[in-house]
Amino acid sequence: MVSADMIRTVLGVIGNVTSMALVLSPVPTFYGIWKNKTVEQYSSLPYLAALLNYMMWLLYGLPAVQPHNMLIITMSVIGIAIELHYIALFLAYSVGAARRRVIFILLAEVAFVATVTALVLNLAHTHTLRSMVIGILCVFIETGMYAAPLSIMVIHTMVHWIQLWRFLLPEDQRECMIPNVLGVMFAVGQVILYAIYYKSTQKTLEARKSKAGQISMAEVVVDGKNGKTSDSGTGNGRY
Q1: What is the pTM of this model?
Q2: How far apart are CA 66 and CA 173, in angstroms?
């Protein structure tokens, strides 16, 4: 007969694999950033939020807080490593205030996790109390992380359903279950929004491209009437 622990382990491994797919899904975006040597319009906030989320779940999975949580520790360590690579690319190809903001938020997150660790380990003297305090923080942080971005929606849904069924089995990990239930709800809502506005968004983008092309042609006509040329060899050329 298959035991509940075995089912939990199998679902945990599947959950980690699908979570890995979620963490790696921005790779094409960061490949574009590396190739173009600029962060363009992309924001670092989702990746900073994800880093904080993984750091908190790593803290939750430590033996001093919640024993026998190797699957959570494994995924958290991998997630931290990958998110740090993403953030390093942002730091490399951003400038000025944008770079300073990334550094400030990163330092603030490290300081927050260090403070929570010190307070919980020194003031809470039982596993139950430690896991409850850190678990509540994880619920709020992870829920905020999943509510914020409106991308990678289908993968979010799959990951949360698997994680949800994984954490429904044990009774001592309700903190893990709550954000995944909410994550499923947010992801489903995002998929619905995507389906509703996809066509209209594409039409808007096409209209903007068409308008930009018309403006460009109008400039060419005006320049022609004024006797100007874009040839770099003339005195009135544009550089």
Answers
A1: 0.62
A2: 9
CA–CA gap between residue 65 and residue 127 (Å, rounded):
5
How far apart, in Å, are the Cα atoms of 132 and each of 92, 127, 210?
A: 38, 8, 56
Helix (H, G, I), strand (E, B) or coil at 131: helix
Question: Binning pLDDT at 50, 70 and 90, where does residue 58 land?
Answer: very high
Q: What residue type is 187 in one-letter code? A: A
Which DSSP state fits 234? Answer: S
Cβ contacts of residue 113 below 8 Å, gap of 6+? 52, 55, 56, 59
- CA terminus-to-terminus distance, the chain: 78
- Helices 45-61, 70-93: axis angle to 10 degrees equals 150
Determine the Cα–Cα distance for residues 186 and 218; give it in Å rounded to an integer: 45
Radius of gyration of the chain (CA): 24
Residues in contact with 111: Cβ distance below 8 Å, sequence separation at least 6, in sequence order: none
Angstrom distance (rounded) from CA 181 to CA 210:
43
Burial of 235 (0-12, 13-18, 19+ CB in 10 A): exposed
Can you tell me the distance from the alpha carbon of 54 to that of 62, in angstroms, rounded to the nearest whole number?
Answer: 12
Residues in the chain: 239
Would you call 209 exposed, middle or buried from its count of C-beta atoms within 10 A (0-12, 13-18, 19+)? exposed
| Interatomic CA distance for residues 111 and 186, integer angstroms | 29
Higher pLDDT, 49 or 220: 49
- The answer to whether the CB of 159 falls within 8 A of the CB of 22 is yes
